[in-house]
Amino acid sequence: MRTFAIAGLAGAIAASLPISLAVPSVLLAVAMLAAVGYHHSADVDPGVTTEFALVATTLLGAYAVSEPEMAAALGTVLLVLLYAKTALHRFARTVITQRELADLLTLAVAALLVWPAIPDRSVGPLQAWNLHTLWLVVLLVMVTGNAGHLAARWLGDRIGLPLTGLFSGFASSVATIATMAARVHAKHSPASGAAAAALLSNVATLVQMALLVAAIDIPLLRSLAAPIAVGLLVTVGWAVFWMLRDKTPVRAEEENASSSINWRAAIGFGLWTAALLLVAAVSREWFGAAAVTAVALFGALADVHAATAAIATQAAGGTLARPMAGALVVLALSVNTLTKVVVATSGGKVFAGQVAAGLLSALAASCAAFWIAA
């Protein structure tokens, strides 16, 4: 402990000196001392964690002179990593498999290296595509599939999949349904459990719609409160029904050497989204600026929240009457629901039928509630 404290203090002193090479010199000296120490202890402990931690502590000491808050935060992370040695080793050896670790590293590269490197601007015909956004869509499918795999293996299909569906739905319900359909098609999950997960992702859609409308135009939310509430109740009811119908034993999914990342489903969904965006761009070009609502409904094929935001914004600005705005939001929900049903067909007749029963009955209930309230 004293060695680490002295190393950090040496780094701070070096950074405070008006000598340009003070920090590199101290860092080199500490690295050489760490190398000598490792040479003497390698037979007993071949790991180099302590030596790297000593060098990192020296750097943190130097960094603390100019950025004390960030240095304190990084020091806390370093301390946690050192303290959690046993837990991390147990996690890597017993909780997660080699294949799963490789998949997580693949996701990290796709999210932290590839995604930031993709330009965030519109390209292609009619500037219809933003490759940065499209790669995010692909990432969502990959992450959802990986999360579903881990949850199913650790908690079992009857518990893990529905939870995955609910939380992944806040990112993209359509992508979640596509992922669940791919799992059923590959026989990685039973149809009933995956259908419950798909329906719970629709719960996330409805909750987000309510929050979005509330943030933009509270009066519009009053006319949509009943349809959204009824849709939530019906969707949850169907999800619980399919969970109870699932007779799969509550046991963790066995280890599988295959990857949990379904590249075919992820890339395919990204291409499908790109096609829908092109359709929306062509519609805008043909109908002109006056057809913002029509374009929003086209956009609802892939993302109902964008359509809802566009309609609510017009209602809040007074360019669209609220009764008409409420009807258009329900119409956008209908369009998006049909998209989800079409996506569910890739999981087979049984899965598609179960998902369609829940989604269409919830949509019918929402439409009826809106008609009665109007």
TrEMBL record:
User: Is the Transmembrane helix keyword given for this protein?
Assistant: yes
Write out the entry's keywords from A to Z.
Membrane, Transmembrane, Transmembrane helix
Domain DUF4010: start-end pairs = 140-346
Keyword Methyltransferase in the entry? The reply is no
Q: Provide the transmembrane region boundaries.
A: 70-88, 100-118, 133-152, 159-182, 194-216, 223-243, 263-282, 289-312, 324-343, 350-373
Q: Which InterPro entries match?
A: DUF4010 (IPR025105)
PANTHER family for the chain:
DUF4010 DOMAIN-CONTAINING PROTEIN (PTHR39084:SF1), MEMBRANE PROTEIN-RELATED (PTHR39084)
Task: Provide the protein name.
Answer: Probable transmembrane protein
Task: Provide the organism lineage as a comma list.
Answer: Bacteria, Pseudomonadati, Pseudomonadota, Betaproteobacteria, Burkholderiales
